[in-house]
Hints:
Blueprint: H1 9-21, H2 26-46, H3 69-76
Helix pairs in contact: 1-2
Amino acid sequence: MRTTIRLDDDLLREAKAYAAATDRTLTRLVEDALREALVRRRQRAQRPKVELPTSGGGGLQPGVDLDNSAALWDLMDGLGDPS
Length: 83
């Protein structure tokens, strides 16, 4: 089937060079790329959802700042006071 697609000039130039370097036509390169993208999409859809176990459910403790790694290490080592 014939169709028309619009590509960015730089992308087209790079795609043509890659197709030539891999001894393929531009059409074949585009077909291969679309097939690969569709396979990856199907594989992602088939992956089971991963649920990580959690405990407590209370969220962060008062005074805990996730942006301060030094303070977090102190808290984990029992050196800091989260309140």
